[in-house]
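User: Working on a comparison across species. This one is 16S rRNA (cytosine(967)-C(5))-methyltransferase from candidate division WOR_3 bacterium SM23_60. Can you predict its structure so I can line it up against the others?
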Amino acid sequence: MNARTAALKALCDVDEGMNLKEALGKIFEKDDLPDDERSLANELTFGTLRHQEEIDEIVDSTYSGDFVSLDSQLKNVLRIAVYQYLFLDRIPIYAIVNEAVNFGRSMKERGLINAVLRGIIRNQKIQALRIPRAWVFKKIIDAYHVDGEKIIDSFKIRPTPYIRINRLKSSVDNVMRKLAATGLEYRKANWFNEFKSVNRLGTIINSPLMKDGYISIHDEAQGLVCHLVAPQPGETVVDLCAAPGSKTTCMAELMGNSGMIIAIEISEVRMKMVVENVLRLGINIVRPVIADGRHYHIECVDKVLVDAPCSNSGVIAKRPEVKERVNAKVIKRLARLQYELIANAATFLKVGGALIYSTCSILPQENEEVIEAFLENHRHFAVEHAKEFTPVGDTYVKVLPGEYHTDGIFAARLKKVAEPS
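Assistant: Here's the predicted structure for 16S rRNA (cytosine(967)-C(5))-methyltransferase from candidate division WOR_3 bacterium SM23_60:
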């Protein structure tokens, strides 16, 4: 069962008098749908019901017969398809039509579905009712042109989950044997031996390996950022925006649990997540500090990671709500915050120290433009080429969604070459 089948069944149950939440709950209890399919099923059912009156008017105006007299399943197939066409621009039109036609139980039904939907798609007045493409998608097209469409298409694909093996507790080989013994399937990741891709996170989240700190859930592209930091045993490292602690703990593992990581987080609630992860993984070099990264101060540290708050435009596959929340005003506010964080972080470093800036955004306004503005005002910093530290990247690390089945990320490494004049 997939999301559309679940939505169709739920809507038919609602037509029979069942409560929608009860109908979906029964389906989800019976069929273990992946999180992204469950989310889409919810969106299709609630959205279709919310707009059912206008959807029915559109179908009725296009269908040459009596729409009301059609049976429940056929009506709901058409309703779901029209809802997707009007409101979900992330789903290609050909896929909407093909999926709907496949629900036809006879040649006659399939022909009817195809004819009605094609008629709706050709109708210019109905086309004008479609929700316009999200602002962030337009910006992705502006930045990446033809590749932008591929990036947007990649957001429709279920993200590949990754785990990171905690080498402080055991060797990679030993943990892999433990994984195999539990029946959890894993595969080699793109770049790093301590990362593995897995099929599902549900069983892993509640597994003893997770609870006992042998593994963490961590996207491998985010691990690239930690390798770009290249923290060494005995160093003092600041993680300026630390929650939920994935990069904090990854760096601690790379340091062999030797040295000190000062984990800064403005939110007390989110800092609890950092502390929980640190304790679970058996790490004892992290010093948590609740503070605003724009105003905190320390001197003579070796490295600073600024994993800045961002639009999350590189992880829309995981966070589809992003496309509705991001606009020009939001990006302007974020870029200002990002600059303030990196400018303050620059004051922490000793000469020769490294400042690493990263986001899970793919928009230049939050990435290259922030770095360019920083370097313009901080001539005592210079770019260190990412290719010297990571297997991906040249001047910067830039991973696009869909490129390696990971998150989309950006990261830059800057070296303090002198004291400011």
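For your comparison, note: Residues 220-416 form a domain with the Rossmann fold fold (CATH 3.40.50.150).

User: Helpful, thanks.
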